[in-house]
Design brief:
- The complex is a heterodimer of chains A (about 300) and B (about 525).
- Chain A is built from twelve helices and no strands.
- With about 300 residues, chain A is mostly helical.
- Chain B has about 525 residues and is of the alpha+beta class.
- Chain B folds into three domains: about 160 residues, D-Maltodextrin-Binding Protein, domain 2 (3-Layer(aba) Sandwich); about 110 residues, Dipeptide-binding Protein, domain 1 (Alpha-Beta Complex), CATH 3.90.76.10; about 220 residues, Dipeptide-binding Protein, Domain 3 (Dipeptide-binding Protein, domain 3), CATH 3.10.105.10.
- The chains are: A mainly alpha (about 300), B alpha+beta (about 525).
């Protein structure tokens, strides 16, 4: 396990390097000059050149790239072009909000999807199964930019139960988490149903029932544990989708997270801030996938990562 | 399984009941006014901020030597009296008894520091170009300031609405001021939660009495629909302009809101690349102008919240010239002009078009709908239009690099006619200015230079009258409309006056009924 951990951690480096390099290249390829956007058309040419020099934009592209990589190694993500603050500070101010929203969305989707999917698998073709799968289809079809305002209209305006937008107490988290987690819940519910149905057909389940174990014990101890692996894969992969989807949800609910910061940075061609945000998002995604792999080993004792079973 | 379902049902009911207690409190009744903003302010340092959101908040935190009244006229603010002994010298006597929010008295040295630091390259202020005419700022006494300019500049006073910042006594204090802005305005800065909210408290030491509203919160809500929903719920009390026009009738029917509609200085126009072989012809541009039914677009796309425009300056501007050539909607005349310009319709009523133009716009929903309407109207006279909408950075880059044929944008906050120099002078091709279409007219350049140097208001008015007439003939822009300034607010708010350029300074005078 230790050697696997070391191998996976070493693999993080080329993966993250690849992502930030691609983003660096794309940022510099797309039209738009951060100096022009920041200073506008009223600035003096001398001020434009001065800012360009200050930001290192007058250097050759390779040198800018080199400085950027060395900065990361030193833990310095640079200064935001637009906000003139340290990128690290800006990200630290916003990242917890994104983590909170993404985490809540994941919890909401798992809490809804797992029990629903298990029941669907246990009661295949029942009314519960059909209606749950119908709602799963709705959940995966409804875009967040539509679902969000709809939930606001119903729960905030009509019933007056919840705030419309913004970040605050738990009540502020409910609608954004449901909006963001709905699609993931739909996917996880369907995956759980399929996985449970597949395991239910296995010989060891038949054997467990033949031994006289209660249905509850068969499901919780034998079926569920074996059905969890594919579900875990989907959950881990969906984290990336949640991070991407959080941009739209954050915009709708005025949630001050990393998603909206990234979009604003891209619009302003704030190169250091975009690169910093992408680095953090890439690292988050890689970390979650690593965690998923370790959870595999914990759930299934047959899995060994040091090369033998 | 039945017990699990019962438990789930009980939990949901408990959650529902718990959430029903989460009603939003009535902040307005407590004297807290919440304003909904579309975008995040960039910087609360008035020497650096250029975006509208920052500027409007800064007007409440800081005061300038001069300000502007609701008619757009320049009026003294921190200045008690002033004189201009010669065209390049201005002497100001600063009002006494004004204090910054940290208790320090405002002195002439603070004024000097504000402008000298702005002009310092190290600050990197985008506003340096606006004040580059200043040669020196002197303080002969603690309450008087003398500005000396390099050359006469008629618009100088209009630019002295810049917020005055306190001169720091130390590096540490300067650092504190950057994190916690300090001004001498009617509201003092409390906190700024990035991407969420800015809070200001009424300044108890405001001359003439503190504002009647205890606190103002600027809540950043990027989504148009959600911003209006916040207004409906009562968690936002005032929105200015940042909503879709079709929402206004719905809000009017609510009966809970006061809606103020006033003339605005938002000038929307169609810009052309005058180096383009087709659009370089003034006859083609005139034909395009006649092909546009602006009244229909105003009625159906803008909900009637605009008035047809004739030029960059709105009718509220002191230098506005009404007697300029106009281009009423006349598709037949448009077709005749296109024929005369050498672009006949190749197949009469058939599908082939005279020529094709590319129309670039941003991704703003309203702007795209306007683009579609213009496309439709130009199609009726035989011009094919391809719409290309881009995210702002790409769009702005393209128009600055003259990588366009047509585009539509809006000038906001036009007050002094010297803006014509910035937009139409041959010295203002990007990146030196905003003459993106590369319009060139030596007569215009001569008049603009003269207008900049002339101090007499009547003489300036005559000069800019001539400028407006020439521009109406040459049509580097086709004027579309002047957007109105529309404010929707909780009807308990009293005393608010909308400013044509969207300023929110009137918030210092409001009270809650």
């Amino acid at each position: 396990m230790r050697s696997y951990l070391v191998r996976r951690l070493l693999l993080v480096v080329p993966v993250v390097w690849g992502v930030v390099t691609l983003v660096f290249l794309f940022l510099h390829l797309i039209p738009g000059d951060p100096v022009e956007i920041l200073l506008g058309e009223t600035a003096l040419p001398a001020d434009r050149e001065s800012l360009r020099t200050e930001l290192g934009l007058d250097k050759p592209l390779f040198e800018q790239y080199q400085n950027f990589l060395f900065g990361i190694l030193k833990g310095d993500l640079g200064r935001s072009v637009q906000q003139r603050k340290q990128v690290g500070r800006l990200i630290l101010d916003r990242y917890p909000a994104t983590l909170q929203l993404t985490g809540a969305a994941m919890v909401v989707s798992i809490v809804i999807a797992l029990p629903a999917g298990i029941l669907c698998g246990l009661r295949q073709y029942s009314l519960w199964d059909h209606s749950t799968m119908f709602f799963a289809l709705l959940g995966v079809s409804m875009p967040t930019f539509w679902l969000g305002p709809l939930l606001i209209w119903v729960f905030s305006i009509q019933f007056g139960l919840l705030p419309v937008s913004g970040r605050g107490g738990v009540e502020h988290l409910v609608l954004p988490a449901i909006t963001l987690g709905a699609s993931m819940a739909a996917i996880v519910a369907r995956m759980t149903r399929s996985s449970v149905l597949e395991v239910l057909g296995e010989d060891f389940v038949v054997a467990a029932r033949a031994k006289g174990l209660s249905e509850k014990r068969v499901v919780l101890k034998h079926v569920l544990r074996n059905a969890l692996l594919p579900i875990l894969t989907v959950v881990g992969l969906q984290f990336g989708a949640l991070l991407a989807g959080s941009i739209i949800t954050e915009t709708i609910f005025s949630w001050p997270g990393l998603g909206t910061l990234t979009v604003q940075a891209i619009q302003a061609r704030d190169y250091p801030l975009v690169q910093g945000c992408v680095l953090v998002i890439a690292l988050s995604y890689v970390f979650v996938n690593l965690l998923t792999d370790f959870l595999y080993a914990w759930i299934d004792p047959r899995i060994h990562y040091d090369g033998h079973r | 399984m039945k017990s699990a379902a019962s438990l789930a049902g009980a939990l949901m009911l408990a959650g529902f009941l718990a959430l029903s207690g989460c009603r939003s409190e009535d902040l307005l009744a407590r004297g807290i006014l919440v304003v909904g903003l579309e975008s995040n302010p960039m910087n609360l340092d008035p020497r650096v901020a250029t975006d509208a959101a920052s500027s409007r908040i800064n007007q409440l935190i800081y005061r300038g030597l001069f300000g502007k009244n609701p008619s757009g006229q320049v009026v003294p603010d921190l200045v008690e009296t002033w004189e201009q002994p010669d065209p390049t010298t201005y002497r100001f006597l600063i009002r006494q008894g004004i204090r910054f929010h940290d208790g320090r008295p405002l002195e002439a040295e603070d004024v000097r520091y504000t402008f000298e630091s702005l002009l310092d390259k190290d600050l990197g202020s985008p506003l340096r170009a606006t004040y580059q005419a200043i040669a020196s700022v002197e303080c002969p006494k603690h309450d008087s300031v003398v500005f000396r300019l390099r050359q006469p500049e008629a618009s100088f006073l209009a630019n002295l609405d810049l917020g005055i910042v306190p001169r720091p006594d130390s590096v540490e204090q300067d650092r504190r001021y950057r994190v916690h802005p300090v001004g001498c305005g009617p509201f003092e800065f409390v906190s700024w939660e990035q991407g969420h909210e800015i809070r200001l408290l009424a300044n108890p030491a405001t001359p003439g009495g503190p504002p009647k509203v205890r606190e103002i919160r600027f809540k950043i809500i990027p989504d148009n629909t959600v911003r209006v929903l916040e207004l409906r719920k009562g968690s936002v009390h005032l929105i200015q302009n940042d909503f879709q026009p079709e929402v206004l009738p719905i809000l009017e029917r609510q009966g809970r809101f006061t809606i103020l509609k006033g003339e605005g200085t938002y000038y929307s126009y169609l810009g052309f690349n005058l180096k383009d072989p087709i659009l370089g012809s003034v006859i083609v541009r005139q034909a395009i102008a006649h092909a546009l039914d602006r009244e229909a677009m105003i009625d159906h796309l803008l909900g009637g919240l605009a008035a047809p425009a004739t030029g960059v300056l709105s009718p509220m501007n002191w230098a506005y010239e009404a007697q300029v050539k106009t281009y009423p909607y006349d598709p037949e005349k448009s077709k005749a002009l296109l024929d005369a310009a050498g672009y006949p319709d190749p197949d009469g009523d058939g599908p082939r078009k005279r020529f094709c133009l590319t129309y670039k716009t941003s991704q703003n929903d309203l702007r795209r709908r306007i683009a579609e309407a213009i496309q439709n109207q130009l199609d009726a006279v035989g011009i094919e239009v391809r719409i290309r909408s881009y995210e702002w950075g790409t769009f702005f880059s393209d128009i600055q690099k003259q990588n366009f044929q047509m585009y539509a944008l809006t000038w906001v906050g036009v007050t002094d006619p010297d803006i014509f120099t910035y937009i139409f002078s041959a010295k203002s091709f990007p990146p030196l200015g905003a003459n993106r279409g590369q319009y060139e007219n030596p007569e215009i350049d001569r008049l603009l230079e003269e207008g900049r140097r002339t101090q007499d208001p009547e003489a300036r008015k005559r000069i800019y009258s001539r400028v407006q007439k020439i521009l109406a003939e040459d049509l580097p822009y086709v004027s579309l409309w002047y957007g109105m300034n529309v404010v929707v607010m909780d009807r308990r708010i009293q005393g608010f006056r909308g400013y044509p350029n969207g300023d929110l300074i009137s918030l210092k005078d409001v009270w809650v009924h």
